[in-house]
Amino acid sequence: MAELHRFLFDGLPVRGQLVRLGASWREMLSRRAHQPYVPPVRGLLGEMAAAGVLMQSNIKFNGTLLLQVYGDGPVRLAVAEVRSDLSFRATATVLGEVPADARLEALLNLHGQGRCSITLDPAQRLPGQQPYQGVVPLHGDRREPLQQLSQVLEHYMLQSEQLDTRLVLAADDQVAAGLLIQRMPAEGPGRMSGERNEDQIGHNEDFNRIAHLTATLTRDELLTLDADTVLRRLYWEERLLRYEPRRPRFACSCAPERVRNMLRGLGADEVRSIIAERGQVEVGCEFCGQQYHFDAVDVGEMFTPVRDQPHTPAPLQ
């Protein structure tokens, strides 16, 4: 089961979310059983999936959130995609040997070229509207490499939203999980004249206290304890206002017709040359592992123009 728990700290300008992806995460990994990712890559993708669900729910965006990290290490690209219904999928392109104990720098940022981007693609774009994209490097303000995805995303949200954020992520072969705590924007009667969100960065005592409690959460606790136990252990002195849990799920948007359209884009000559060489066209989805096969008959139908059917008059009554 997968669960997302949203909550507020009663009377404080702090909100939080806790996600646990269990069976849905294992289903995603099982689709790659024929070509599994090595443990460090599986861990990275699990953290990205959990973080993507947290961020999508946090902004309540009607569209697709695309979280990508890319660089000059053996992992050239890792992607997590989360839609507004919290369905998710993830994949990675690995082109080199991955050390068994590799962390973020060794995976993507060997020579300081690593980047993290977040793209928001609206479900219904207005004419001329383009997806929003923000990009940050995989290092902090002092140019030191960041060793954890959570640090990169905290840095991103501080720059893009001017809001203090604390994020804890963890993933293994059974569970991908994350806890996000964020200071809420300053607004309303309690807001001082001329006060801006950026003026409060690092200075809100309530957030700093709760962030300190959040930082005590260990990786093993996040992976093994249920949501109620985690929240009770961390915030037993606080009064939490909790929302109804939501159910993230693994889902892939690939489909036979989308693959056919991709092949049509290659052109008849290119596709027919593959048929002549291999006897069929095989296309595998990088996200879910689904394999699509097209033979010569399929390709012939694919590139045969559709003619209008002759009109048959209706019989007289």
Task: Indicate the topology.
Layout: E1 2-9, E2 14-21, H1 23-30, H2 39-59, E3 63-70, E4 75-83, E5 87-94, H3 104-108, E6 115-122, E7 132-137, H4 149-161, E8 165-171, E9 176-183, H5 205-215, H6 219-224, H7 227-234, E10 240-242, E11 249-250, H8 256-266, H9 268-278, E12 281-284, E13 291-294, H10 296-302
Parallel strand pairs: 5-11
Antiparallel strand pairs: 1-2, 1-10, 2-9, 3-4, 3-6, 4-5, 6-7, 8-9, 12-13
Structure, described:
- With 317 residues, this protein is an alpha+beta fold.
- The protein folds into two domains: 2-250, Hsp33 domain; 256-302, HSP33 redox switch-like (CBS domain Like, Alpha-Beta Complex).
- It is 32% helix and 26% strand.
- The protein has ten helices and 13 strands.
- The chain has helices at residues 23-30, 39-59, 104-108, 149-161, 205-215, 219-224, 227-234, 256-266, 268-278, 296-302; strands at 2-9, 14-21, 63-70, 75-83, 87-94, 115-122, 132-137, 165-171, 176-183, 240-242, 249-250, 281-284, 291-294.
- The radius of gyration is 24 Å and the shape is elongated.
- The N and C termini lie far apart (59 Å).
Summarize, please:
By secondary structure, this protein is an alpha+beta fold. It has ten helices and 13 strands.
Core attributes:
CBS domain Like; elongated; Hsp33 domain; about 25% strand; 6-stranded mixed β-sheet; 10 helices; 2 domains; alpha+beta
What shape does the CA trace take? elongated
Please mark out the parts with pLDDT under 50 across 5 or more consecutive residues, or reply none: 188-194, 311-317
N→C terminal distance: 59 Å
Largest sheet: 6 strands, mixed
The figure for the number of domains is 2
The H-level CATH homologous superfamily of the largest domain, spelled out, is Hsp33 domain
Compute the number of helices: 10
Top-tier CATH class of the largest domain: Alpha Beta
Question: What is the CATH fold-level name of the largest domain?
Answer: Hsp33 domain
Number of strands: 13
Strand content: 25-35%
Content-based structural category: alpha+beta
H and E string? EEHHEEEHEEHEEHHHEEHHEEH
Question: Per CATH, which architecture of the largest domain?
Answer: 3-Layer(bab) Sandwich
Question: What's the average pLDDT?
Answer: 85
